[in-house]
Specification:
This protein is about 30% helix and about 25% strand. With about 350 residues, the protein is an alpha/beta fold. The protein is elongated. The relative contact order is 0.15.
Length: about 350
C-alpha cells in the first residue's frame, strides 16, 4: 500500500521560520488545514506546533479540531451553506462571509446558541471568487454591524484562487482603504485586515506589504515552502514536509509506443504516436497508486530520471529508461507533491498516512 509521510521536524522548521517573520512584523496568523482533510494524525502534529488559530473550509474538519483542542480559535473560510449554519456556530469561532441573508441566519443561530460569532467580510478584489463588491461595502456593513450575536472582526480578500489574479501592493492598499472608510463612517475599529495568504508572503519578504495588512492565513507555504510568484522554495524552508512512497508492482521492458487500434482511454485522453519511437523499448514500472488518489501531473519524482507516463484508476505507470538504478518489483519510489496532489492523497482512504521524525 502507498504511504503519505509527514516529516514533523521539517514541519516544525517551516513553522518556526514563518512565525518568526510574522512576529517581526506584528502580524497575526493562522494555519489553513484544509489540506489535512480532517486527518487526526496530521492535525495533531499541526496543533502541536503551538498555533492558536486554525482555518478550514470544511466544518467537519473544524469539529475534529475542536474535539482535539477546544481552545484553538477555529475559522471557517468560505461562505456558509444554510444547512451548515448550526454546526458553523457550534464549531467555528470565526467565518468568512459575503451574503447578507446568510449573516442574518448566523445571527439568529448565534443568539439561539448564546454565542457571539465573529465574521470577516470578504471583498472582491479581482479574482472573481467570493467577495462583496467594493462599491456595495458600506451599505453591506450598515446592515451587518448591529446584528445580535455577530461581531465583525475583519475585512479580507482572496487572490490567486480561481483566475490566478495575484496580490499587489496597490490591491492591498485598496483593501486597507476599504477598512479605513468603514472605520471612519461607523466610528468603530476593525481589528483585522486579512489580506495575507501564502501567495502574499513574497510581498512581505520584499517589503511591499502595506502596514495596514495585519492578518495572514497560511497553508501552502507552511507545508511546501513555496514562493508562488517564482515557483521556487523560500530560502531557509523545506519543500518536502510531505512525501509519497509507493511500491513497484510490475517492472518489464516494453515497447515505447502502444500497438493496435486506439481510441480515448477511460479518462477521455487520446494519444498521438511518435513514429521515431517505433522499435524502441524502455523499462516501465507500475506503481500501486492511481487516479482515485492523485492526478499524475501533481507528482514530482525524487529520482529525476523517472518519467511519469500516466495513470488509470488504481495504477500509475512510470518510465525508467534503461533502469540504470536496477529497480525491481517490491522497491519503493519516492515522490514530492504539488499542493493539489497532496490534497487528493490526503482525501484518499486508500493511502496510509504516517508521521516520521
Amino acid at each position: 500500500m502507498a504511504v503519505l509521510k509527514l516529516c514533523k521536524e521539517k514541519l516544525h522548521h517551516n513553522y518556526q521560520h514563518l512565525d518568526k517573520v510574522f512576529k517581526q512584523h506584528n502580524i497575526d496568523w493562522g494555519i489553513v488545514t484544509k489540506l489535512m482533510c480532517g486527518n487526526e494524525l496530521f492535525i495533531k502534529e499541526v496543533l502541536a506546533l503551538g498555533i492558536k488559530e486554525i482555518h478550514d473550509s470544511r466544518v467537519t474538519n473544524l469539529k475534529v479540531i475542536k474535539q482535539i483542542a477546544p481552545d484553538v480559535q477555529t475559522v471557517y473560510i468560505k461562505p456558509a451553506p444554510k444547512k451548515s449554519i448550526p454546526d458553523i456556530i457550534q464549531y467555528a469561532d470565526v467565518s468568512f462571509q459575503t451574503e447578507l441573508d446568510i449573516i442574518r441566519l448566523l445571527s439568529d443561530e448565534a443568539v439561539r446558541q448564546q454565542k457571539v460569532h465573529k465574521i470577516i467580510i470578504m471583498i472582491e478584489m479581482g479574482d472573481l471568487r467570493e467577495g462583496v463588491m467594493g462599491d456595495e461595502l458600506v451599505d453591506f456593513y450598515a446592515n451587518v454591524f448591529e446584528l445580535p450575536g455577530i461581531s465583525v472582526i475583519g475585512l479580507g480578500a482572496n487572490f490567486n484562487c480561481l483566475h490566478g489574479v495575484m496580490p499587489t501592493q496597490d490591491k492591498l492598499i485598496q483593501l486597507c482603504l476599504y477598512t479605513q472608510i468603514i472605520e471612519a463612517k461607523f466610528n468603530i475599529k476593525i481589528p483585522w485586515v486579512s489580506g495575507g495568504t501564502s501567495v502574499t508572503i513574497p510581498l512581505l519578504f520584499n517589503h511591499l506589504l502595506p502596514k495596514g495588512v495585519n492578518h495572514f492565513r497560511v497553508g501552502e507555504a507552511l507545508f511546501f515552502g513555496l514562493n508562488l510568484f517564482t515557483g521556487e522554495t523560500f530560502e531557509g524552508m523545506h519543500h518536502d514536509v510531505l512525501e509519497l512512497e509507493t511500491e513497484i508492482i510490475e517492472l518489464t521492458e516494453k515497447p515505447m509506443i502502444p500497438s493496435g487500434m486506439m481510441t480515448e482511454n477511460p479518462s477521455g485522453e487520446s494519444f498521438e504516436i511518435d513514429e521515431t519511437l517505433y522499435g524502441k523499448t524502455s523499462h516501465r514500472a507500475i506503481l500501486d497508486v492511481g487516479l482515485l488518489d492523485i492526478n499524475p501531473k501533481f507528482l514530482l519524482p525524487k529520482d529525476e530520471s523517472l518519467n511519469v507516463i500516466g495513470a488509470s484508476s488504481d495504477m500509475l505507470v512510470v518510465e525508467l529508461g534503461e533502469n540504470l538504478q536496477n529497480y525491481k518489483v517490491g522497491d519503493v519510489l519516492h515522490f514530492n507533491l504539488r499542493y493539489m496532489g497532496a490534497l487528493s492523497i490526503l482525501n484518499s482512504r486508500y493511502i496510509s498516512k504516517e508521521v516520521v521524525d
